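input
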Amino acid sequence: MKIFQFKEILPELPNLLIRRRLKFEFERIPFEVKGLPLKKIRNFFRAGLNQFLLPQKPLGYPVIAQVEPANFCNLSCPLCLTTSETAARPAALLSFDRFKAFIDEVGDYLLLIVLWNWGEPFLNPDLFKMISYAKSKNIVVHSSTNGQVKFDEATAGRLVDTGLDSLVFGIDGTTQETYGQYRKGGNLENVLENVRIVVGTKKREGSRTPRLILRFVVMRHNERELPSAHRLAEELGVDFFAIKTADLPSALGENLDGDFAPANRTYQRYEYQVGSFQRKLKPFICMRPWKRITLDALGEIIPCEYDYKNLHSFGRTKDGQRALPIWKGTGAGEFRKKFNKGNNNFYLCQNCTYKNRVAEDCTIAVVRLKEG
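output
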């Protein structure tokens, strides 16, 4: 089930209330949290009411956190805001001390931490400490990498020992020519070797985690390699193969759909007007400011990842300022008042690539390659 889709929660109530465990999906990947304390269960239900009441000051506390370990990257992908729009922010690494203070404050309520935003998480030397600390609070931790920071067996061993629940490797091509056309500055073999090392380390240590996801973002130049990417995922021994539609943020240009949208409609994020790449409008409801808290690498609490310029920051966690009072504060309340479920003139909502999509999720298919 998805978090806060109550029609899917009902069958899970016995597990949640009696066995204190909860199964849910994020990006179509299944997760399960066991041994939930009553405090988290109570907050889960209180926070769920926000989608009906839409209060300026939310009930309860967020159950999902998105945390940005680094706001810069070692690649220059043409559709990624990291290499263009986010340059308005100074390059930064989130410190472990700030992360620890954040988790100490919100960890009693969180079910899931999404440990990436703009930038490559593995550029932060404290990333493994962050994962281990979050796992000590019984929180599911899901992260992602472009695979260009090279692993050796010792590094892979440290990664496995953190308890990380899942790790996405992005490839977007099965030949260097295709891969490099989008992942500019990247080497495909680096990614594949890192995957092999982590798979081998998991086998040696008898560990099921981190579950590895090979993710393929389908674009016009690479859609022909989708079948070979699926085969490659099987050969590598990862747990899942994921297919995702391409982010096409309007901030980067008006002709992105015509240049990057795949020819096969199955893999297009949007439905287009006949004879053009003008997107058809779809009903859209966004609950990010109520159910998720986002901490960027500068320590700012922002409405969501699309506030990549920090123009709508709720406040910065520094000088004794804590995250939850900021998230529930006056500035955040004024933002929610004007938010209108994502239908507004805020730049982050105008550039949001989740609006008008055809499928419910940007990840349109996940193939389980291993049980467990």
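quick obs: The first helix runs from residue 6 to 9.
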